[in-house]
Amino acid sequence: MTDMDTDMDLGGADGDAEVTFADVFRDALRRRGLSLERVRDRLEAQGIGVSLATLSYWQRGRSQPERARSLRAVDALEDILALPAGALRSLLRPGRPRGRTTSELLDLSASHRVFGENSDVEQALGADFARFNEDVTSLVIHETVHLDEERCIRQLSVNQVLRATRDGASRMTAVHVIDDPATASVDVTVRCGKLGRVEFLPERQSIVTEILFGGELAKNETVVADYTISLTPSREVSTYHERRTRVSLREYLLHVYFHPDALPVSCHRYYRERIGAEKASSRQIALDVSHSAHMLPPKCPAGIHGMSWEWPA
Q1: pTM summary value
Q2: Secondary structure of the chain: what % helix, strand, coil (to 5)?
Q3: Domains of the chain (ranges plus CATH)?
Q4: Quick one: which of 4, 162, 296, 302 has the most CB atoms within 10 Å?
Q5: Is 61 helix (H, G, I), strand (E, B) or coil?
Q6: Local structure of residue 55 (DSSP, 8 states)
Q7: Which residues pair with 168 in a beta bridge?
Q8: Hey, which residues does 175 pair with through a beta bridge?
Q9: CA gap 121, 133 in Å, rounded
Q10: Distance from the first to the final alpha carbon of the chain
């Protein structure tokens, strides 16, 4: 259950009161006898994905369309609702400034703290690094890693719950740094969400993957992304896996499966507050009967959470 502000019915306002986008949108829906579900379906038929929550927020005046895709939806809504051209667009207030605000600069500082200055992630994203997943924040992350008999990571699966930090969020970007620069290719499979662009950058030992949500989220709406990255055979022995997070997570689970013919002599979980810092809270982890080890920190603050392992001499 999500707590929301009490709805306000603006339909009975005085005649000299300012007419808003929400007023006209709500009145047009009532006159046409259309539900938000039917409006969403008609938008989708035109290739415009807008969530029910977003339409509801527009109808109640809790938010307004701002992004390019949302403005396309507004133009389509005028036709769907039999309104004159510009009847809705003309009522939109000036959008938020899209420049570098103080909060964005702070986010960039947080990114540098956990990824490092001029990191592989920043080089892989280029100019987009400054807006790296600015519309969403991670809540829960479960990662499963599989190593082969050559002691190399062959597969990484990620199940992630995210929350929209603003209206209009429609995708997330994941950047994974791989061990072996000689890896020839990668395969990405998405189980929850839809695969967008994939960039394999062997010169930077990085994989950039875009997961599409299939529509726009309203602020505070949650979404699940579930995907697997499979690597071609490599010869670089893996000794650790870590997750760098700019925000505190509600939960982070890392589960590492070792091949029965290649078992480590010890495993440790660790935490670092920032890139380059000494490992803190290092603790040994035992392998279970499935030849796997896992870590589930009781708290997961921003920083670097990881597991390392040692191989027999």
Answers
A1: 0.67
A2: 25, 35, 40
A3: 21-91 (1.10.260), 102-310 (2.60.40)
A4: 162
A5: coil
A6: H
A7: none
A8: 208
A9: 13
A10: 54
CB 114 within 8 A of CB 304: yes
pLDDT tens for residues 47-69? 888 887 788 888 888 788 877 77
Instruction: Give the residue carrying structure tokens 């935490």.
Output: 271
Asked if 263 and 151 count as a contact pair (C-beta separation under 8 A), the reply is: no
Q: Using CB atoms within 10 A of its CB, is residue 126 exposed (0-12), middle (13-18) or buried (19+)?
A: exposed
Q: Which residue type, as a one-letter code, is found at position 69?
A: R
* Tokens at 304, concatenated: 């670097």
Give the model confidence (pLDDT) of 129-188 as tens digits. Answer: 778 888 999 999 999 999 999 999 999 999 999 999 988 899 999 988 887 777 777 899
Identify any residues that bridge with 245 across adjacent strands, giving them in sequence order: 303
Among candidate residues 269, 219, 277, the one with its CA nearest the CA of residue 242: 269
Q: Where does residue 168 fall: left (phi above 0), alpha (psi -120 to 50 degrees), or beta otherwise?
A: left
Distance set, CA 230 to CA 128, 233, 281 (Å): 25, 10, 31
Contacts of 147 (CB under 8 A, 6+ apart): 153, 154, 238, 256, 257, 258, 259, 262
- The H or E element containing residue 27 is helix 21-32
- Angle of helix 36-45 relative to helix 52-60, nearest 10 degrees? 120
Question: Residues for the chain: how many in total?
Answer: 313
